[in-house]
Amino acid sequence: MYSKLDIKNIFKQHKKTFLGNDNKMLFNEKIAFVYLPIILSLFISYCNILNNNIQNILSICLSILIGLLLNLLILIISNLATKGLSLSNQKRRVELIEETFFNIAFSIVLCILGLINLILINIFVIDNSIIFKYHYYSINLDLNIIIQFILSSILYFLSFQIFLTLFIILKRIVKIFQVDIDLESKKIKKKEKKEIKS
Q: Which residue among 2, 29, 161, 197 is buried most deeply as judged by most CB within 10 Å?
């Protein structure tokens, strides 16, 4: 059962798309994709813990995104053909499609984790009176606020990761289809030249 639920490969392949020639992630990419989202998530959670309105908006957005990204996966696979391309372009196209495929799969996983996180935010509402009932009088902190802060930070972080990954996917899809557009443009130009000659 665990093997069927194992998604480590998606995370590995997604991470691989960021690695350079030395198999290391560039420092500026670490800042943009790791450190900055963590800092912003903690700051936003500190300023504004998720309320019901934000939760509703995020749950709708994540649900819609899952459906759209699943359709995009099918679209990417259906455009795997490399006819009319040189060997180098064929290789690059397949690499781009593979990277885009795992980026999309990674985004879907993040959306699902985001929805799970939203469920947990609504489940983990603790009554502080229960804590005091068991004589933990030394605790002066509101556990609800701590739990909501942690879960809100995680959800904000996942949201940042999803949107950043969407930009990567968009850029790669443009590259993939740009080759097709250029090929079709060349074919049209050739046909126009033949028509002019005839």
A: 161
Q: What one-letter code names the amino acid at 17?
A: T
Specify whether the CB–CB gap between 66 and 108 falls below 8 A.
Answer: yes
pLDDT tens, residue by residue, 69-119: 999 988 888 877 666 666 666 777 788 888 899 999 999 999 999 999 999
> Would you call 135 helix, strand, or coil by DSSP?
coil
DSSP 18-57: TB-TTS-B-HHHHIIIIIHHHHHHHHHHHH----HHHHHH
Confidence at residue 192, expressed as pLDDT on a 0 to 100 scale: 75
User: Residue 3 falls within a domain, yes or no?
Assistant: no
Residue 37: Cβ within 10 Å count:
19
Q: Count of domains in the chain?
A: 1
172: which residues sit within 8 A by CB, 6+ positions away?
A: 96, 99, 100, 103
Residue 1 maps to a domain? no
Structural domain span for residue 158: 8-193
Backbone angles phi, psi at 25, to 5 degrees: -80, 135
| Residue 198, domain member (yes or no) | no
